[in-house]
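Justification of resources, computational component.

The compute hours requested in this renewal are based largely on the per-chain cost of generating structure records like the one below. Each record pairs the submitted sequence with a full structure-token output. That output is archived, and it is also reused by downstream analysis tasks.
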Amino acid sequence: QENSTSSAAVAKGEINNKSIPVAALDLLLRNLTQAYREGNLDAFVDLFAKDARSAQASGRNNIRRDYARLFRSSASRTLLFKNMRWRRRADDVWYGAGQFEVVITDQLASNKKHLVGSATLTIITSDKRLKISEFNYHVQSPAQVYALTGEKPTPESSPKKPATDNAPLPQQDL
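The structure output for this chain reads:
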């Protein structure tokens, strides 16, 4: 549902009424993936609401702690969202569902972890800006990843514990 929100406001992530344009939601994801790729912890965490949560992390400070650890331990990382579908849940709450793909290279550039799966996000408006309030995902099994990418699974690329629909990204080193 598009509205007349100016493109300048959308570019800044500002929302001035109850109807959030899909372009603003997509921009939020682009900003998230860019901050993730660059390891820009401040920019990354600023995209989350103060009380944001996933299955094992609650609050922006805990999200900061988890991702600081990931950003320090990896030389490079890529996060892509694909086929995101957005649905309004309330006037200022949107729910998105789609797929994700993550590639993480360790500090020695000797190991790459490649994970794919489904992701869900809940986006709210806070102080006229879009913020992530919930971020959950489900990692596909190594066999499913191989079927999609042709990349043979290794112990390093497999999740450390069974995947759940509510596992937070940092727990799986995403």
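The two ends are 31 Å apart (CA to CA). The beta strands are 48-53, 74-90, 93-106, 112-126, 129-139.
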